[in-house]
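Subject: Protein entry, chain in single-letter code together with its fold tokens

Category: Structural biology, sequence-to-fold work with a learned token vocabulary.

Notation: Tokens come from a learned vocabulary of local backbone shapes, not from coordinates.

Start of record: The labelled sequence and token lines come straight after this line.
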Amino acid sequence: MKNRIYKYFFHEFIGYFLIILFALTAVIWTIQAVNFLDLVTDDGHAFKIYFFYSFLTISKVVTKLFPFCFLIAAMLTILKLEKDNELIILWTSGLNKIHIVNLILRISILMMFIQLILTTLINPQILNYSRILLKNSQLQFIPSLLKEKQFNDTVKGLTIFVNKKNEDGTYENIFIRDDGNVLSQISSGSSTIYAKTGYISQDENGLILFDGNVQKTEVGKDVNVIKFEKTIINLSGLSTKTTPEPKIQETSTKKIVACLGERYLFIRGCISDKNNIELKKQFIRQNKIEINKRFGMPIFIPLIALITCLLLSSRNEKKISGYYKYFYFFIGVVIIISAEITVRYSGNSINHTAIYYSIPIGLLPLIYLYLIRTFKYENLN
């Protein structure tokens, strides 16, 4: 009998949890995907790269929403069973409320481990892969480099300025500054190209320029000026200057722990200037914060679970019983927000780290003991 009740409660909870998680993830991911359109419009990546990169960020969104979705799902499950008088049937049949509390707590521990796997293993790998995807992708939309009255430096070492874009697709007064030897077909050193007019080739791989000149600065030599009536610049195969090095959230947990253990710093594979004390403190702090995010945030899920269990202690006959759900929901949201805020300061010192972990670890036994004391006079099954 008890196992059937547990399965029924678990199925109700999972149903609510998955629906809420899917709905919120879809909304947030859509908004985020719109922001990523800059990868196409500004950086010139292909739509295929854009969609794939956007899709890979879903795991990060899901991880962030885990505690909040758990809070809503747990409260909706309890309120639904209470509204249908199913909880009253359970209580009158002799089932102690603490059994339901233990069930919710066990579910929260399961969710905590799932989030731990996401934060420590899956997310870093997926985010790092998305970074490699951008790093290895080539610029596909040459027109995105040519924006009227804007200096475009999407490609590292290359700056392009267009004074005017005509309706027929031609451009006027085109300036190109190559400081990184990007256009190797023009010069082996830095160069400046000016053209009165130009347009993009049909295959969108080249820029055809008219009536201009190339100012080449060879290493150790003077500036040479070469005039031209027509020239073609091959822009195919260019890569954008998207950060090639992985950010800290894109680095494996094993590597970050190893960096801290060896007292190195997180910057380009635990390499940094050991003589720069301020830089050293900054990156050690970032390492600690990231570790606390990955291992600390999931611990708050059991605490949220016990907060929702306080709904079981409310009495329907009280006039203010209808407001308890709002009050406990507010407390749950405050805990989630507090976790997000305190983790940002957890890397400052050992005391800050201790305060961060003491919130869930300290409150968990207190609330659980309160629930046991509240339900101790009820009949045990």
Observations:
- The radius of gyration is 29 Å.
- The first strand starts at residue 151 and ends at 152.
